[in-house]
Structures are given as C-alpha cells and as structure tokens.
Specification:
The structure is a homodimer.
Chain A lengths: L1 H7 L11 E4 L4 E4 L7 E8 L2 H14 L3 E6 L8 H9 L6 E6 L5 H11 L5 E5 L4 H11 L6 H11 L2 E2 L3 H13 L7 E6 L2 H12 L4 E2 L4 H8 L12 E2 L7 H12 L6 E5 L3 H9 L3 H25 L3 E4 L8 H8 L4 E2 L2 H22 L6
Parallel strand pairs in A: 3-4, 3-5, 5-6, 6-7, 8-9, 8-10, 8-11, 11-12, 12-13
Antiparallel strand pairs in A: 1-2, 1-4
Chain lengths: ~375, ~375
C-alpha cells in the first residue's frame, strides 16, 4: 500500500484524504484551495482540509499571514505532533496554530506542546468535543475524538491556548504574531461609539478582563480635546470627537502610558474614511480625510512600539475596502470585525503570558 | 428642558444621545450612519448607536433586511418596551430584534415580551452583564445594567431568544425572517468539506442539537451519486462529489424528507463558482459553471418550501462577491460565514418553537 511504498523509498508524506501543504515563504503551493494565504509568520497545521481553506480566507480578514500550512488528513504517516515540532523550531514561524479533530498520540502531542509553548505560543481549535461532533469526526478522519473535559485539561497542562471558534483561532494567532504580550488583564478602551465600548468591555469581562480607572488629571487633560458629552471614564467614548484626527491618538496615549494598563483596544478606526466617502463630493478633500486617518493609524502603531504594550483595533469597517484598515494591517496591526473576537485575542495573550511566567518562575524550596 | 417642551407640544421623541430612527419600508432615514440597511421584515430597536450601525452592516452580510430601526439612546421619553410593542403589532415586521444595555422598566418589558413572543419571535442581545461591561454601560446610557443571572431568568420566563454575540443577533433574526420553524433539534448536514461538517456538528451539539442516522437504503441511494470515499453517514460529506451540481440537491433531499429530520444545514455553497473562477479561462464555460450552481441554490430553496423545514446555508464564500451567495440571499435564504453562527441560528429557532408550544398547550387540571 501507499504507506509501505513510501517507507521503502524513505519518503514521508501527509494524508491521505487531505488537500496538501504549502510553504508560503518559499512560494510552494501544493494545495487544493481556491484561496491563497497572506504571507506571514503563523504556521498552521490542520487535520481537516476545509478548516484549512477557511483559515486561509481569515488571514486576509484579520491581516495576518501564514509561513507554512500542512493538512494532515487521516495521518497515515506524518502525525500532528511531528509537524508541531517542526514549526516550533522553524525560524520563519513565530506562532503555531492548529485545527485538531482527533489526537492519535496524545502523550507525544502533550510533550511537544509543553516544551513548545516556552518557545512560541500554540493556539488550538479542537472540534469533536460534543456527542454530535464526535460522531462526525470519527467518520471524517477515522479516529476517536476526545471529550470537552479531557481537552480542557490538556490545554491547561500544556499551556496551549484554546480558541473557542474557528474565527478566534486566526484572530488570536494574529495578535500573537504582531503584538508584545500584555502583563495582565487591565485594559483601556477607546471607542467612537459608546455601545460598542460596552460590548467589548463585556466580552473582556467574561474572561477576567478589567477596566482601569482614569485619574482626575487624565479626565481634565482629555477635556481639552473631547466634546463636553464624552464618557469621562474608561471606555473613553469620544462620541463625535472622533472626527478630529488628533482625538483618537490623544486618548490612546493617555491610556497606554498609565502604569497599570496592560493593553489598549481601539474601536472604530475607519470612521472618518467611511463618512468622508459618504458625504464629501470633492475628491481632493476626500483624499485629505482618508490621509488624516491613515496618519492616525500610523501614530497609534508608534505608541504601541514605544510603550511595548499590545494595541488591538476593532472596527465595523474591517470587512469593506478600507484604505485605513489595509494600512493598519500593512503596519502589522490586526484588525477585528467583531468585539467578541478582539476580546478573545487580548485574553488569550494574557493567558499565555501567565502560563509562561508560572513555568519560568524558579523553584523555591520552603 | 427638551422633555417638558415635547410634552407641551404632545410630541414624543427618541433619545437623547442617539443616532436616529429609520423606517426602511417607507424609505425614511433620519439617521447618522454610514451604512444603510437592506430592506426586509426584521424590526430592530437599539439602546446604543454604534451597535445599530454594526447591525445594519450585518444585514448585508447575512442577506436579511430591516423593516424599522429605532435608536433609543438614554430614553428620556420613549422606552424600549413601547417600541417593542409597536413592532409586535406592525404588519411589516415578522421578527423583533433588540440590543439592550440597561432596562429601565423591567416589569413592563417582561410583560410586553411575554405576550409578544406569541405573535413574533423576539431576539435580544444584552450587554453590560459582566462587571467591566456594567461599568461601561452605566457611563454610556446612564442606567443600571442587570446581571448575567437576572437576564438569563428574564429570557427564560418571557421566551425571548438570547443572542450571545452581536453577530448572532442578526444571524438568528435572519433565520426567523425566512425559515419555517424546526419542530426539534434533529439535524441533517450536507457538507463539501468533512472538517467543516465536524465543526458545525459540534456547534450544534453544544446547544442540544443531534445528528440523525442514515438508513442503509439511503446510503445505497447516495452511493449512486457520490464518489466511493464519501462519509456514508450524517454529516453527508460529499468530498469532491460537490463539483457535480446534482449531488448537493440529492443529498439535501435525502435528508430533508426523512420523517425525523427537523432541518438541514448545507455547508459550502459557492464552491463551484470559486473553483471555476480560479481555474477556467474561457468566459462562457465559467458562466456555465456559475449558472449550474445558482440552479442548485434554487432547487435547494424549493426543497425547503416543499417540506416546510428550515434549510440554512453556511459557506466560506459568503463574504466575497459571489453570485451564488447573492442569489441565495435574494431567494430568502440567509447565508452564514461562520459554522458557529449558523448553528446558533438553528438552535434559536428550535428554542423558540419549544417555548411557544409549551405556552400554547392547554391547561390540564389534575
């Protein structure tokens, strides 16, 4: 059979029942997929072909790229932990992402992951965790899928970060690929719309995220830039102040330089571009508006680099052809379309930071 | 002040601190939003302006339309239960959707909802349910937001359906707006990719969804159309059989006509169009391929109408300019981009069906 023939020729292979591999960084695409991934430093291993294709689509959405992709299918030869090991030692890869249905060699996977997370974050989406999903998985790649409880224990013990949706898998990988790690879960939120600030705060709260308080001095300072009806607390709701390009930068800076802030989420970038395109007839004027917002984006990215804290962007303008959003992605800022996904990305980074710190702490005898 | 002046003139108003209202069916747009909603029969009331704008964007994504939109802001005059009451009695509205942050008159809202759900489904997203979210909500519309537990009890008692994300709010409304209700949670899945079938099955399993079994006769029958390596069970994984236009229709029909099936989810529509656009140079041939898939879509919609069971479509091609996806939306089939959202939509319909049946059951004395 195929396996014996391969062994005889000292050839190793992925599959069967898979849609191929690709090495984005060397432009090798041995792949059955209508979508090609963006180039980047996330290496992705998948036990299913269609989740692989879905994920490649998501690389464009969030503005994150892949370095490698391997679809394992039913793992006649190469196993998932072997690919993971390769990714962990691959200099072109900064983040490892995995779609798992059923793990054949759990012990080896756990060993590989446990050591691996000390080098790079490993984000994993596991399907086949409910009765319905398990039955579907058994027919698909022909192996027993584990239960919800078992896999939860596996991620806790190894330090792999678990994504709860396929979208989160790539959304979380995007954050790891581009951001410094937060040292905790204290967040500053700047938003151009109060309601969306509440939704993001809630989504953070579900996973232990907290909002920092503004001092009186900070409120005074922001009063100088914001309209009188701004929120005067975190989330900093700029209301219509957002149409002044200076405002988003001042708000972000006020939050990120606070000692206790671990990271900032900016909600609504792209709003100037959207309104300008809608309401301004004159082309030069429109161009000026869009440029002013691209400039905001650049300055926000610089704040992240200066303070070495993560800054994530979320906006409802993420899915449309927005030059501001594209500029952010080009500068290495992932852009999220959903308040829930951006929150999960921040919390995942904090969780990984916690795990690594816990492991690295030297053993102290009593 | 504004309220007193309005009362004197017998004028009622929404706001303050809001972005307006619109009546899509009469083309009234008194609204500050860069996005206009699609026209349809979902009436939406929002306590926040930005969630309103987000939702209008989502109407295009899922292919569902709005009949009315009201942004209440801080509810100086008109309250959320009054708008809900109006929507419930509005002949242009089939589904009521609400974004809530903080409820001022809980008793009235519960009364309105309890009676309302017997006429129309009410889908609600509630923010401000965590500590972080609550604090943000208090600053935003200036009222106390309730806790997670309280609001869970409210939805259970009233029969309102709770959306867990902003995307689900519109995704669920889209299903109610277009589909017959499922009588239970037994699902048939047809998928062009095994992995995605597993993810959908899992997402259904989380909320009590079950997969029906295929009989030997049904497997035999499908053997005639599907390639030898198809899954031979539910989810029906067509593998590369999907490139034959007949296959998706035969699979859907086999599942939907089964007595015990309450609804069908079809995953991957748009795949022929995507591959044809990628690989076929000849324009006429390409047109032929796309047309063949539009034709599949039409026949699947007819199956839904004939059997009066819900059929939902999910595909990774939903976000790109796909003529097949647009055709489905035009025919009143919402199209989901995420396996998690499509599953939540199906489960929400089943939950609503359960509630209404329970209420309608006549009182039987012991």
């Amino acid at each position: 059979d195929v396996l014996r023939a391969a062994r005889r020729g000292r050839l190793r292979f992925t599959g069967g029942n898979c849609n191929g591999i690709c090495s984005v960084s060397t432009s090798l695409h041995a792949l059955l997929s209508p979508v090609r991934p963006r180039l980047g430093d996330v290496a992705f291993v998948s036990q299913g072909g269609s989740p692989g294709v879905v994920t490649m689509g998501l690389t464009w959405k969030y503005g994150v790229g892949l370095s490698r992709y391997t679809n394992l299918g039913d793992e006649m030869d190469v196993k998932v932990h072997e690919v993971m090991e390769y990714y962990i030692n691959d200099p072109r890869t900064r983040v490892v992402a995995a779609y798992l249905e059923s793990v054949r060699d759990g012990r080896m996977l756990m060993e590989t992951a446990r050591r691996g997370v000390l080098k790079k974050p490993i984000v994993v989406y596991k399907s086949g965790v409910t009765e319905a999903g398990r039955r579907a998985a058994e027919a698909h790649v022909g192996a027993l899928a584990g239960s919800e409880e078992v896999f939860n224990a596996v991620t806790k013990q190894t330090g792999m970060v678990r994504a709860r949706t396929v979208e989160q898998l790539m959304g979380i990988a995007a954050a790891f690929s581009t951001q410094p790690l937060p040292k905790g879960r204290k967040v500053g939120i700047v938003t151009v719309g109060g309601g969306w600030g509440v939704v993001v705060a809630d989504a953070l709260g579900v996973g232990g995220g907290e909002l920092v308080e503004l001092t009186e001095e900070e409120v005074e300072y922001l009063n100088r830039f914001l309209p009188p009806h701004w929120s005067r607390q975190n989330p900093v709701d700029t209301t219509d102040g957002a149409f002044d390009p200076e405002v988003l930068v001042k708000c972000t800076e006020t939050l990120i330089r606070k000692e206790e802030v671990d990271g900032v989420i900016v909600v609504g970038v792209g709003i100037i571009e959207a309104f300008v395109n809608l309401m301004v007839k004159d082309e030069d004027l429109r161009e000026l508006g869009v440029q002013s917002e691209v400039n905001i984006a650049e300055r926000i990215v610089k704040l992240r680099d200066r303070y070495q804290k993560p800054v994530l962007a979320a906006t409802i303008y993420a899915e449309r052809d927005s030059r501001v959003v594209e500029a952010l992605k080009e500068m290495g800022m992932p852009v999220y379309d959903s308040p829930h996904t951006v929150a999960s990305a921040f919390l995942a980074m904090a969780e990984y930071h916690d795990h690594v710190e816990r492991i690295k702490r030297p053993y102290k005898p009593l």
